[in-house]
Specification:
By secondary structure, the chain is mostly helical. The protein has one domain. 88% of the residues lie in helices and 0% in strands. The longest helix has 39 residues. The chain starts with a helix and ends in a 5-residue tail after the last helix.
Length: 91
């Protein structure tokens, strides 16, 4: 395994741990309840065809948001390491 692969695996592990912690939070529980309400609203206020269309759009937006979050998280970790190295805290 190269250093780059090891670094990616390390970052992936940290990210997965952060996501797991978030999923156990009250904020995530609120988001789940809110999503259930949105799903109910979609079911009762849209035709089946419209609901499918809206769900597709929401899914794509969700995927894009998740990817952006992961990229920003990884960059934040890399920036933190860079800063600590330049401050002499890390060798």
């Amino acid at each position: 395994m190269t250093r780059h692969e090891a670094w990616d695996e390390f970052l992936t592990s940290l990210y997965s741990s952060a996501i797991s912690a978030h999923r156990d939070s009250k904020e995530c529980e609120y988001q789940k309840q809110r999503q259930a309400r949105i799903d109910e609203d979609l079911s009762t206020n849209l035709t089946a065809e419209d609901k499918f269309f809206v769900e597709e759009i929401l899914f794509e937006l969700g995927v894009a948001g998740e990817r952006e979050t992961e990229v920003v998280y990884r960059q934040g970790l890399q920036d933190s390491v860079w800063l600590l190295k330049h401050l002499g805290v890390l060798a």
